[in-house]
Amino acid sequence: MRLILLTALTMLAFAANSVLNRWAVGPGHIGAVEFAVVRLLAGAAMLAGLVLWQRGGWAWPGPRGRVAGVAGLSAYLLGFSLAYRGLDAGTGALVLFGAVQVTMFAGALIAREAVPPRRWAGAGLALVGLALVAAPGAAGPAPLALMAGAGVGWGVYSLAGRGSADPLAATAWNFLLSVPLVLPLALLAGLSAPDGRGVALAVVSGAATSGLGYALWYRLLPQLGAARAAVAQLSVPVIAALGGAALLAELPGPRFWAAAGLVLGGVALASLPYRSLTSRSSP
Questions:
Q1: By Cβ atoms counted within 10 A, which residue in 7, 40, 137, 201 is the most buried?
Q2: Displacement of CA 132 from its chain's centroid (Å)
Q3: Helix crossing, 213-233 with 2-25: angle to 10°?
Q4: For residue 115, what is the DSSP state?
Q5: How much is the pTM?
Q6: Strand, helix or coil for residue 89
Q7: Contact present, 238 and 260 (Cβ < 8 Å)
Q8: What is the three-class DSSP state of 79?
Q9: Per-residue pLDDT of the chain (283 residues; tens, 9 = 90+)
């Protein structure tokens, strides 16, 4: 029961990032670039504090995947915030989730991993779902492209971090090393003065739902295993959509739910082991 509750709390944190970002940027409480910067700084501070508390000091995790990790994280943070100027919380989370999974699939192909037919079929379903979101009459192409870019960034970040011996320390270093990359870009874009609510939402997103959320997720992953972790993450876009409806009055329409069924069904088909799909019991 404790594992289920902690996993649900983590999924709520991940979904909350979409709701908090949309809540802050959509009404203009803070600019999109400013939100990304504050979120990054708050997340870096929280993760650094957690590493110092748990480890009693800093240890360099090594250069492996560091450049790709920092670049991917920076692209994710900026694209995520900029996209929420024109997307509702649920649609943004769905596009992000689908783009991450497609990027991970492409990474497997580039690495020449064996890709079974079921995974091809799942990736195809997810792409059809994303195409439905992007069909004429849905959100504008620019926000969708920005969120898809954010998903590619997070996918690259995830691929770069696979096999890390200490994912929490690696994530803390990636956040810290992203600061000198993101901050100059933000200064070049020009910063505006946010209001107190916008800053507070960005700090909560960075320190709590990102920093603490990632730390808790890495702690739970060994207990969950790959199959249950994949299933758990399927809930994030749905939770974000429900949060957007409850807090921001953004009611998802039939197009969203149809696309969500295709994307999440495709990801489940591609991610879960065959035994998990045919067994009546949990893995």
A1: 40
A2: 20
A3: 100
A4: -
A5: 0.87
A6: helix
A7: yes
A8: helix
A9: 788 899 999 999 999 999 999 999 999 999 999 999 999 999 999 999 999 998 777 777 777 778 998 999 999 999 999 999 999 999 999 999 888 888 888 888 888 877 788 888 888 888 888 888 877 666 678 999 999 999 999 889 888 877 677 888 888 999 999 999 998 887 776 677 889 999 999 999 999 999 999 889 888 878 877 667 777 788 899 999 999 999 999 988 888 899 899 988 888 887 766 444 333 322 2
Q: Return d(Cα 264, Cα 267) in angstroms, integer.
A: 5
Give the CA angle between residues 255, 243, 223 to the nearest 5°: 100
Radius of gyration of the chain measured on its C-alpha atoms? 18
User: What is the identity of the amino acid at 3?
Assistant: L
User: Quick one: tokens of 242?
Assistant: 């429900």
Give the C-alpha separation, 205 to 41, whole Å. Answer: 11
Token output for 88: 């509702």
User: Torsions phi, psi of 192, nearest 5?
Assistant: -115, 165
Sign of CA dihedral 199, 205, 208, 214: negative
> Tokens 């979904």 — which residue?
15
Minimal CA–CA distance to 94: which of 283, 271, 282, 266? Answer: 266
- AA identity, residue 236: V
